[in-house]
Amino acid sequence: MKNDPKVAIISTVKGTLEELILFINYHLNIGIDKIILFFDDPNDNCIDHIHSTYKNVHAVTCTDEYWLKRSSHRPELHTERQVINANEGITIAKELGCKWIIHIDRDELIYSSKNFKSVLDNSESDVIRLSIREAIPEIENYKNIFEPRIFKVPNPSPRKVKVAKVFGCKSVFYGDNYFKGHTRSKVAIKITSKIQKIAIHQPLEYDKKNTRFIDTKEIKLLHFDSIGFHDWYQKFSNKPENFSKKPNVKRGAHRKLLIQEFMDAQSKGIQHLHSLYKESYMISQNKIFILSLLKMAEKISINQKLFETPFI
After folding, report:
1. CB atoms < 10 A from the CB of 264, how many?
2. 3 state DSSP class of 62
3. Domain 7-138+181-226 has CATH 3.40.50.2300
4. Can you give the pTM of this predicted structure?
C-alpha cells in the first residue's frame, strides 16, 4: 500500500496567537504534513511561540531584509506580498519533500469527510480547485472565528435566489452577490515543472498545453470571513488605507461598496458600525432555515478535538 503524498499549506499570517494556534492544530490534525507560515509583521509576538511549539511548522519572518532579496522593497498591497510568499513557499515545500501545496488564508480551513490526501493522490490532475463554502455569522460576538457551523453554498440558481427573496431573505443578498467574501475557491497544486508561478487563487505561469485542471466536491474550503464584529472591524479598518492609496486596485464591485459603507459608518461612530455589521453580515435562524430548505446553506460539523494540540 503506497504512502499518502506529503501536503503543505502556505499562508501569510497576521492575527491573534489564539486563532493561529487553532488554525495550525486543525490542519496538522487532519493530516497536513507541513505548514509554511509567512509572518507579515516581523515583530509579531506569535513567532517565538510557533517556533518553539511545532516541529512541522516552518515559520518565515518577513523582515526588510527578506523583502530586499525578493522584491527590492516591501510591496504596499497585502495581496502582492501574498503572491511573493506563496511562490517562496513552494520552494520551501519542495525542499521539505512535499508533493502538493495549498495556499490559503488564516481565516480558511480545509475540510473533507474522507481522506483528502487520497483524493489528491488518486487524481491525474495537476491543479484541483476546492469547493468553497462561506461561514454564516448568527451572533455579533464569537470566542473565535472558527465557531460557526452553517455555511453558504455557492452559485445558487436564479430561481432559488428569487424564491429566497420572496420568503424574506432579500437582506441576505448584496446586489447580485450571495457571498460577502471571495467566490473563487483556492486550489491544491501538484509541485511540478509544469507550474512556474502561482497567484493567490490559481497558477499564474504554467504549461497551458499540458497542465490538467479539475474541480472537486470532495474537498471543501471553509471561509470564515468577518466572523463577529471584532474580526470584521479589524479586517475592514485595514482596507480603506490601501483602497484610498490605490483606487485602481482590482476588487469586486461589491467589495468596494462594502469598504465604502464601512468608511461611512466609521465616520458616524461605533453604534453605526455595529448596526452595519448586523445588517450586512448576520443572518437570523429563520432565514437560515429558508436557505437550508433551498440548499443554499448547509451545516458542516467539525470535530472540536481537531483544534486541540496534536501529539507530534
Report:
1. 12
2. coil
3. no
4. 0.94
Contact 34, 98 (CB under 8 A): yes
End-to-end CA distance of the chain: 23
Residue 1's pLDDT band (cuts 50, 70, 90): very low
Task: Give the range among 82-96, 165-179, 182-196, 248-262 with minimum mean pLDDT.
Answer: 248-262
Question: Is residue 77 within 8 Å of 246, Cβ to Cβ?
Answer: yes
Show the beta-strand stretches assigned E in the chain: 7-13, 34-39, 57-61, 100-103, 108-111, 127-135, 150-152, 187-190, 195-198, 203-206, 213-223, 297-299
Structural domain spans, the chain: 7-138+181-226, 155-179+227-299
Beta strands 34-39 and 7-13 are parallel
CA atoms of 256 and 123, how far apart (whole Å) = 38
